[in-house]
Amino acid sequence: MALIITEECINCDVCEPECPNEAIYAGVEIYEINPNLCTECVGHFDTPQCVEVCPVECIPKDQDHEETEEQLWKKYHKLIRAAEV
Ligand code: SF4
Ligand code: SF4
Q1: Does residue 49 form part of some domain?
Q2: CA-closest residue to ligand 2 atom 5
Q3: What is each CA distance from 79 to 12, 22, 30, 52, 66, in whole angstroms?
Q4: Is residue 4 within 6 Å of ligand 2 at its C-beta?
Q5: Per-residue pLDDT at 13
Q6: Torsion sign, CA atoms 68, 77, 37, 60
Q7: In a domain, 1, yes or no
Q8: Given 8, 72, 73, 75, which residue has the most CB atoms within 10 angstroms?
């Protein structure tokens, strides 16, 4: 399951550089996560790095993008392959 940034985001910019998949970007009002790039950090870290650093705890799981651990691993391998091309 990808994660999502809620409107409690204070635009502190701390999470964006921590994402191993470059899934986080500055949106129009707050930071946003591209669900196609977020693997919950599977393949890189044991825990979601954005959640670890966010000072206001505004990054829950995105219920609209449910994925199993297996699907997250598949996404990770797909992203790695794309990065190698
Ligand atoms: Fe990036 Fe990991 Fe946060 Fe997903 S959980 S947005 S991959 S830092
Ligand atoms: Fe927003 Fe949290 Fe990211 Fe800061 S760390 S930009 S508050 S989501």
Answers
A1: yes
A2: 54
A3: 27, 11, 25, 22, 18
A4: no
A5: 97
A6: positive
A7: no
A8: 75
Q: Which ligand is nearest to the CA of 5?
A: 2
What does pLDDT average to in each consecutive run of 10 residues of the chain (85 residues)?
A: 95 98 97 97 98 98 94 97 85
Residue whose CA is at the smallest distance from ligand 1 atom 1: 19
User: What gap in Å lies between CA 34 and CA 30, rounded to an integer?
Assistant: 13
pTM over 0.85: yes
Q: Which domain holds residue 65?
A: 16-84
For the Cβ of 80 lying below 6 angstroms from any atom of ligand 2, the answer is no
pLDDT of 11 reads: 98
Q: How many domains does the chain have?
A: 1
CATH for 39: 3.30.70.20
